[in-house]
Automatic annotation (TrEMBL):
Lineage, highest ranks first: Eukaryota, Fungi, Dikarya, Basidiomycota, Agaricomycotina
GO biological process assignments: proteolysis
Native species: Serendipita vermifera MAFF 305830
CDD domains hit by this protein: M14_CP_A-B_like
Location of the active site: E396 (proton donor/acceptor)
Protein name, as recorded: Peptidase M14 domain-containing protein
Amino acid sequence: MTAEAYALALPTNNPASQYLGVKVVRVPTGPSTAALDELKGLISSLQLQLWTTVPTVNSHVDVEIPPSAYDTFMNSVSSILGDAGILEPVKVMHDDLGKAILDESTVPDDFHTEAQRSFATPAWFNAYHPYQDHVRWLSDLATTFPNNAKVVSSGTSLEGRSIAGINIFGSSGSGSKPAIIWHANVHAREWITSMTTEFMAYQLLSNYANSTEIKGYVDKYDFYIFPIVNPDGFVYSQTTNRMWRKNRQTPPSGSTCYGRDINRNWDSHWSDPDGASTSPCDEDYKGLAAFDAPETKQLAAFMNSKMNSTQGVKSYTDWHSYSQMFFTPYGFSCTEVPPDNEELTALAEGFTASLKEVYGTEYQYGSSCKTIYKTTGSSDDYAYDVSGVKYSFSAELRDTGSSGFVLPANQIYPSGVETWAGVKYLLANMK
């Protein structure tokens, strides 16, 4: 079915138009640092947008290429790879990114008809949705399950939007059991993360009455699920620039570039070299100081308020996309090992194995530094090292690069189902 057959779910100034004709390709990097440096120089000279935050050797870079630069880029890449003896081909992820965004940004005509009374139905997971509908979805979910859920907030964004979430609790009522905290859409463009965490919230509530397994989890823990912790960036990705990553913080003095990466702004090894950028124009810009992003500061305050109460925090997970990976601490070091490493690694292995059993989806697992790249000022390291949350994880959801950030809506349901299988393993096996 074509995009024209659907009604647009996003605002009329859909950002798809600026990406019409833009291609996204995956370029292998090979073992040569010289070839990687040439490739990064080419990308910089053509002012291309990277989807790969930290390009490394023996990996790949995913990059957007407008029609005007495509021939120049591909010819130059061919020479770079040829000179380096890299035989792996360049792969096209999106032949027309604008069309992919348009397709992604639509919902079936009958969605709002079906959802006139409540958005909190299975039909929600057939499409992506605008920010204001996510807010309504949380409210509708709490209204549908009033004995086990209520809307909560982890603070307010720079532009005044609530960092809204859902608190799910069992027969003892809210606030009486150890907390499990999930953050999603930390990076604005990673839309699948909000949908996947909402799917899991729906599973917890819709199955509480008919599943002894789920009832056991909900009676044992208090869940605090925040599907969109970067609401300003998320709205900007829907209305202006689909590939926006950071929050929308005003530029520091001397710069015209907006935003902090709120997953490089936590007060955990924030000042360490590498692992984040000091340039305001970079996508992993860490800010002028730890917690100078209001979102990050308030998210940490919420976590610590639970940790320092009689509840405590049992587990924290930071949900991202894409790459299909599940991480344990640490991100700041590839040599330091957390005291609970053996147990955390076993849980990560179980998560990925349980997830794979559903559709055969392969996830890698391990410490984030070793598995993907070094990060400083990250939330999972902060949760583990500073707040003292033993079961601290982060994840990269679907896919491995076929669609990347612009994952088709028909992947929402399978992403939710398989991730939920992995999470149930964690819930059953955390001590």
